[in-house]
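Box 4.2: Ligand-aware structure prediction
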Amino acid sequence: MSVPTQRRTSSSRKRRASHFALKSKATVKCSNCGAVLLPHRACPKCGYFKGQKKIK
Ligand SMILES: [Zn+2]
């Protein structure tokens, strides 16, 4: 197994960690009840998707 040859400096460690932040997920509002949902999914509260009741 390989072993690091040199110690990473604190700045190079921070430079790598600068890309670790999480992005906020895209959300849409339900056209029927206004609940916040993930896009392209039926509403878990009222079961509506594209204006039709898809979940009983
Ligand atoms: Zn809904």
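In the box above, the bound molecule is zinc ion. The beta strands are 28-29, 36-37, 48-49, 52-53.
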